[in-house]
Predict the structure.
Amino acid sequence: MLEEEKIRLDKWLWAARFFKTRALASQAVNGGKVHLNGQRIKPSRAVKIDDCYQISRGYERIEVVVTGLSGKRGSATVAQSLYKETEESLSQRQREADKRKLAAMQRPSSDHKPNKQERRKIRQFIEKN
């Protein structure tokens, strides 16, 4: 086996630009944020082509299939060639993003901080109710 074919999971996640540093990738794997076919794994696990990983980052849950191996962090286009996101994962992420946008639209936000007069009116309104 060639040395290039034995890539640690944390190194591959970093090279594929899922995490900003290798330490963050390792921390995510140890924290249960990365699964291989539904099973928890270790950061030292060797990545193989056609492995299916589920990666959780914040609100996002991404399911990817490994298409290439690299231990070096390159440009974003090179990183995107290392994996293929599943269609189900793409549609699920889009639905979740739409839900978050709708939820944000329902919460009104002010374009400025209330001034002294507006704060007095707010307090009066709250005290009446």
